[in-house]
Amino acid sequence: MKLIFERSMPGRGQDIFPECDVEIKLPQAALREKEAALPEISENEMGRHYTELAKASRGVNDGFYPLGSCTMKHNPRINEKMAALPGFTNIHPLQPEWSVYGACKAMEMLEHDLGEITGMDRITLQPAAGAQGEFTGLLLIKSYHESRGENQRKEIIIPDSAHGTNPASAAMAGFKVVVIKSNEKGMIDLDDLKAHLSEKTAGLMLTNPNTVGIFDDNIMEITRMVHEAGGLCYYDGANLNAVIGLVRPGDIGFDCIHLNLHKTFSTPHGGGGPGAGPVGCKDFLAEFMPGTYSKDDGFVRAEKSLGDMTGFHGNFLVCMKALTYLLTIGAEGVPELAKNAVLNANYMMEKLKDYYPMAYDHTCMHEFVMSLEKFHKESHVSALDVAKALLDYGIHPPTMYFPLIVDEALMVEPTETEAKEVLDEAIEAFIAIHKQMMESPESVMACPVTTPVRRLDEVSAARHPILKYTAE
């Protein structure tokens, strides 16, 4: 399709306003040297352009979206309606608290609910994304050790299966990243953990269930070992969807946590809207919390607060969508969603394990990882090829080549909001692609064939990206 600049024709436009008859004087330094290179296009053509773009995009409303580790689940429309209430949209964060009591009360309710879910004593809604929540949690750990005069604690331990944001956040916070190995079951190698614990250990960052979809059997031993070494335990809440309402991170030894409202709590994800990454902590870390927190029908700042991670109370309307979700499903619905997420993942895994080798052949949690290493060696069909083939079945590809500890990995997360019929259709598609691999591997390597755009040259796109349009 054409870019909107390529649709542009000189002299075309959409306004019917008369010429401005008011003299506007601006200093010469504020004036452009030449006119802005904006597209000139009619309203009719602009409408068609954006409709064409919309048809070419894909989201959770278009079909099965098993994107592992991201919990790409249905976003209930009632969330959007509640967030659009005038009492939420027509207010300003600088208004006195008495004039926005309802909004303050709503934030207080969400803080309380998130604290109950996570087992944490204090919640801040300020961080605007999961990665910023990670960074915030690490700054809490850093502030804690510095307040005790333990400035030598500069190491953050991270498993080799971790999300890529973990080491990045640790490095940004000024820590040295220490990577420890996973064992043959996909869990933390306790001997390797023990070998890396020392007086330099500031803490451990851990996702549980981890990125191969496994709940670590030794989690209580892991957090005990870190605490005995003087470190703190940070919980990456990216995979909380699998255990929400069933396991509270604060009850299994974690000291702080971030939550992805745009994952577990059904607010739009990625291009669908802004994120939110609230952070929770135990009482002994609360004095360092950023932003403000609710207290006595108002908001106060912690005594030794880090300051602000973003403006005011964070992405307020995203938080209201998450609160709506929790109020809608209720206390009974919270553990039910986790159980259904685990059930759906295990159902798919059991149906596919005779066709695709599983990286870890035992009960998974919310997601499972397949390894196409065998197929790649024997027929040259890669995980990327299978992902591309799924596009021809109207299925968004799962996560590819992650976690890094699994060769030719495909990570599938069906989420709790998919019906059995949808899962069965997806299973049939995977099986059909397997048959195609066995009979005609070269045809799989040519996929997709039914999409608006065929196989792209992704290497060239990555190495020589065209990031802007240059007018002739």
From TrEMBL:
Residues 339-439 form the Glycine dehydrogenase C-terminal domain. It comes from Mogibacterium kristiansenii. PANTHER family: GLYCINE DEHYDROGENASE (DECARBOXYLATING), MITOCHONDRIAL, GLYCINE DEHYDROGENASE, DECARBOXYLATING. GO terms for biological process: glycine decarboxylation via glycine cleavage system. It catalyses: N(6)-[(R)-lipoyl]-L-lysyl-[glycine-cleavage complex H protein] + glycine + H(+) = N(6)-[(R)-S(8)-aminomethyldihydrolipoyl]-L-lysyl-[glycine-cleavage complex H protein] + CO2. This is glycine dehydrogenase (aminomethyl-transferring). Residues 143-270 form the Aminotransferase class V domain. Gene3D superfamilies: 6.20.440.10, Aspartate Aminotransferase, domain 1, Type I PLP-dependent aspartate aminotransferase-like (Major domain). Keywords: Oxidoreductase, Pyridoxal phosphate. InterPro entries: Aminotrans_V_dom, GDC-P_C, GDC_P, PyrdxlP-dep_Trfase, PyrdxlP-dep_Trfase_major, PyrdxlP-dep_Trfase_small.
